[in-house]
Every structure is written in structure tokens, then in C-alpha cells.
Design brief:
Layout lengths: L2 H7 L6 E5 L2 E5 L4 E7 L14 H13 L4 E5 L12 H16 L6 E4 L3 H9 L4 E4 L9 H8 L2 E5 L17 H18 L7 E4 L8 H9 L12 E2 L5 H7 L7 H13 L5 E4 L2 H22 L1
Parallel strand pairs: 3-4, 3-10, 4-5, 5-6, 6-7, 7-8, 9-10
Antiparallel strand pairs: 1-2
Helix pairs in contact: 2-3, 3-4, 4-5, 9-10
């Protein structure tokens, strides 16, 4: 079976298996909650709050206690206008945090990076997933690293780079174009030896998209289910929500939860990447209880 045929034939499934190294994550009606650990001084929402190794480890473990199904650890900000950091700086930021968290919890760890060497060393120290905003295109060695370690991968759509992505982004049909990009990247990844069950897809809310583009994607999030892989949705506290609500970063939790619940109720996202783990788990628990009762009464 060709990789593209595999992707199409998976498209009718609404439950997913996501293989991340030796872990087989079963994703059912409730999406997995991915807690964010930013080891950066300049991330848009929480830059500097967990910049020390000790603070980042403590924060990650606290998110696990709050119910995070996995953690996403990043050492380079991808906020609009951000400039890259050096390989050595990123390694110094994330490797001690991965080691520290991996030694104290069995929750799978995702590494938010587009550098193959960071991914390689992070995987050696206990990470399970490469979450790459360039969809494995930013470093020619990234596919090889992912294949060698059997890592799970999150392939994200981004127009441009963090430094340029919000400069007048344009699309003829944003949903169709993002879908096409993700399908092509999934096909290229499987052609490079990454098993299809290891792939998750992220439409890249806020990455090279206007407020209207983001809303168009969220309104038609089900369209991405035809690709047959888990959809990772990252909307937590993002700028489009601030402009919609006229709220600063620290006051966007309600808007973030609204998007997560809307996606979960339609089973249009299988992984949600969030800052506010407790509130997200609570909202999803209530939503799941309502959905189960509704399904029971309809049968």
C-alpha cells in the first residue's frame, strides 16, 4: 500500500493511534491535552516564567499533576517577529529540562524544535515527539532523526518564518491550501521512512494567517479529518483571540476553552496544546459527560 493510499484510507476513522517511539497513544472521543513548557525569555504568553531549568522542570511536573497527557518543551520562541536562537543556546535551554522531567514522570515528552541536532539529543535524553513548526523542512537531517528514533512527529503549516509570517498573509482558499500542504508533508514524511502512525498534523493557527484565516480554519476543522491523522490544535491565548475579544494575553483563557470545546464536540481535534491544563481538562470532562449522555439517549 502506498503512503498516500494509507493516509486516504485512514480518513474515515475518528479514533486514532499515535505511535511515539515505544508508546502507543490511543486517542478517542476526548483529545489528548498537551501542556506547554516554554524555556524561553520571549514567548508571547509566558516568556521568562520558566526560563530557569528548575522553574521549567517544576512547571512541567505541575502540569502533569493537573492532568496533562503529554508535555511540549520548547527552547526557541516562535511568536510573530521572533528571531532564531543558536543551536548551542537551544540545547542548553531544553536538554536539562527534558532530563529532569523524564526522570520524574512517564508522561510522553514532545520537543518543539526545527533543528535536527536538538531533536536528536532531546530524543536521546527521553523525548518521544518532534513538534516541528517547519513540518520537517527546516533542517534536511530532521526526517532521518525522526526515522532513526521512531519518534512521533507533529507536522505544522506555517507561511514564511516567525520573523515574517504575519506580514500580510494571503490565501485563495486557506483551508484547502493548508490541507494540501499537510497532505504533501505527510506523504513526504512517509516516503522518508516515517511510519504513518507516527504522524500528527497541525494547521498552524496564528502562523502566517490573519484573524479571518484562523477563524476560517477553525470553522472547517473537520476538513482536516480526511487526512486520517490526529489533528493537533494550538490556539491557547493566541493573538487572533486577543483581537477578537480585546483582551490581553493573560485574559484569554475563556476564549481558548471555547475553541477547544468547539473542536472537541465535533471530534475535529485529537490533541490540544494548551497553557491552562486544569481548566482544559475540566471543560473536556464536562463536555464528555454531556456527549456520552446525548449519544446514549439518541440510541
Amino acid at each position: 500500500m502506498s503512503s498516500s493510499t494509507e493516509i486516504r484510507e485512514l480518513s474515515t476513522k475518528r479514533d486514532h493511534v499515535w505511535q511515539v517511539r515505544d508508546r502507543r497513544l490511543m486517542i478517542g472521543p476526548r483529545p489528548l491535552v498537551m501542556g506547554i513548557v516554554n524555556v524561553t525569555p520571549d514567548s508571547f504568553s509566558d516568556g521568562g516564567l520558566c526560563f530557569s531549568t528548575e522553574a521549567a522542570i517544576a512547571h512541567g511536573l505541575a502540569l502533569v499533576e493537573q492532568g496533562a497527557d503529554l508535555l511540549d518543551i520548547g527552547g526557541e520562541s516562535s511568536r510573530p517577529g521572533a528571531t532564531p536562537v543558536s543551536l548551542q543556546e537551544e540545547l542548553q535551554r531544553v536538554l536539562p529540562v527534558i532530563e529532569g522531567i523524564a526522570s520524574q514522570t512517564t508522561v510522553p515528552l514532545s520537543l518543539d524544535t526545527s533543528k535536527a541536532e536538538v531533536a536528536r539529543q532531546g530524543l536521546e535524553r527521553g523525548a518521544h515527539v518532534i513538534n516541528d513548526i517547519t513540518a520537517l523542512t527546516g533542517d534536511p537531517k530532521m526526517i532521518e532523526v525522526a526515522r532513526t528514533f521512531g519518534a512521533g512527529v507533529v507536522l505544522m503549516h506555517m507561511r514564511g518564518t516567525p520573523a515574517t509570517m504575519q506580514i500580510e498573509p494571503r490565501y485563495e482558499n486557506v483551508v484547502a491550501e493548508v490541507c494540501r500542504f499537510l497532505e504533501e508533508r505527510a506523504r513526504d514524511a512517509t516516503a522518508g521512512g516515517i511510519e504513518v502512525e507516527r504522524i500528527a498534523l497541525d494547521p498552524g493557527i496564528g502562523f502566517g494567517k490573519s484573524r479571518q484565516h484562523n477563524l476560517d480554519i477553525l470553522a472547517r476543522l473537520e476538513d482536516f479529518q480526511r487526512l486520517g491523522r490526529p489533528v493537533c490544535l494550538g490556539v491557547s491565548r493566541k493573538g487572533f483571540m486577543g483581537s477578537l475579544l480585546n483582551r490581553p494575553v493573560g485574559e484569554r483563557e475563556a476564549g481558548s476553552l471555547a475553541v477547544v470545546c468547539a473542536a472537541a464536540s465535533r471530534r475535529a481535534a485529537q490533541i490540544v496544546r494548551v497553557h491552562d491544563v486544569t481548566a482544559t481538562r475540566d471543560a473536556l470532562t464536562v463536555l464528555e459527560a454531556i456527549d456520552q449522555l446525548r449519544e446514549k439517549t439518541q440510541t
